[in-house]
Amino acid sequence: MTFEERVTTFINDHHLIQPRMRLVAGVSGGADSMALLHFLSQKRDDWALVLAVCSVDHGLRGAAGRDDLNFVASFCRKNNIIFYGRTVDVRTYMKKRKMSMEAAARELRYQAFREVIEQFHADALVLAHHGDDQIETMLMRAVRGSAGMARSGIPVKRPFAGAMLIRPFLSQTKEALEAYCLAHGIKPRTDATNALDTHTRNRFRKYVLPFLKQENPSVHLKFQYESERIAEDERLLIQMAEERLKQIIIEKKKDQIKFSVPGLLRSAIPLQRRIIHLILNYLYTNQMMQPLHQSIHIENLLQFFRSGRASGNLYFPGGLIARKSYEFCMIGLPEPMEKGYDTVLHIPGKTLFAAGTIVAELLPEGNCIPESGCSPESLIINYGTVALPLRVRTWKPGDRLTPKGMKGSQKVQRIFINKKVPRDKRLIWPLITDGNGNILWMPFLRRGRQPAPKALEHKTKYLKLTFTSKVDLGRTEA
After folding, report:
1. Do 169 and 32 touch, CB atoms closer than 8 A?
2. What's the order of all strands across the beta sheet hosting 163-166?
3. Could you read off the pLDDT of 428-464 as tens digits, one per residue?
4. CATH (one of 3.30.470.20, 3.30.465.60, 3.40.50.410, 3.40.50.10490) for 229-332
5. Neighbours of 240 (CB within 10 A)
6. What is the location of CATH 3.40.50.620 in the chain?
7. Is there a smaller number of Cβ atoms within 10 Å at the N or the C end of the chain?
8. pTM metric for this prediction
């Protein structure tokens, strides 16, 4: 078959282009994109296409970049093709966003594509990625340790900017595109940076790809076949992982997801990996960061879950943290650490603080004894014997509480551990102390021993403290 016949067959097999579609072609002026532009222009009448071109000068190559843009514009004028030219400042953008030059160029280029798609009301964006690009991409991602759908390389088509992004040349080699240009008298522009070893892709192109083609001249077709099969398998597994994730998820926010660790580990191992991958992709996308595709991070987290450790943290690129606490795990951006608070209680009255509210009320004399009618949210104190002022504060290393009915004291940290209080909740858990610094109460956890009444005391006043939490402290009153 001829080049045109092979490309047309690929387009038809993958349902990429239909008659009367409005297409925007991304064209740089190189051999790949010029072959694409010429091919589409030749098919305009046969397929009743409405064609436009978007060309982007990244501002990295000075006059050479501007000449590339003008070269494409000239071709479009001669062939009566609508042209959209865009010039972007990659260097400024990469410094502002703290990203690599390659990533910044790609992001700005695709922003330009989005604008043109919307302006032109296009049905699809057409790009000239070819079979050699596919081999390079799949190998690079395999070496990097990519996971999930990323292993399948460059997709033939995917949704983009309210339209579709299609790649009709993935069954062709770079050599075939250059031969097509030569046969049709097209003298494409060349970019000298494509020969530099500083770019990872260039090294694969110069040193790995020739060896593979020597072993099998049709290796690009083998990689394309594997790409499509991997993508099909991944779509099924991801669908199953999504259903399983719905069953184990406990809380979902824009920047955090909390889920059941036992529920995850009861899932099939292939689903475990993809569940974590789904969570990470969701969080990275919401934070406008490049989604994570490193399998090593997913495997490290699963190994940590299987180790049986009760709690601990793992860290991911971009600032994400996985916090395991007993049977639950929260993955997301760290919450701003609550500053320690230390506030005198208003008696009687209401005291507001970071973890909630305490209402203090004096009870009628002789109305109640300290141990009657106390709920986990309340404490009744002999107001006549307690040292004032009463305070509410967060815990400090070394804090100890003497529980009611016990001779010795307990470390507050040990109480937290015994009650399985998550580490992040310990930072804001309220402690009620008397004027001597003794801990009288840890709401929902422990009541401390109170001073004994004085022998000559003839009247007893009681104070009732009621705590209302504004955060979920995971109540586990003893």
Report:
1. yes
2. 82-87, 50-57, 22-26, 124-126, 163-166, 157-160
3. 899 999 999 999 999 999 888 876 655 445 456 889 9
4. 3.30.465.60
5. 16
6. 3-129+167-215
7. N
8. 0.69
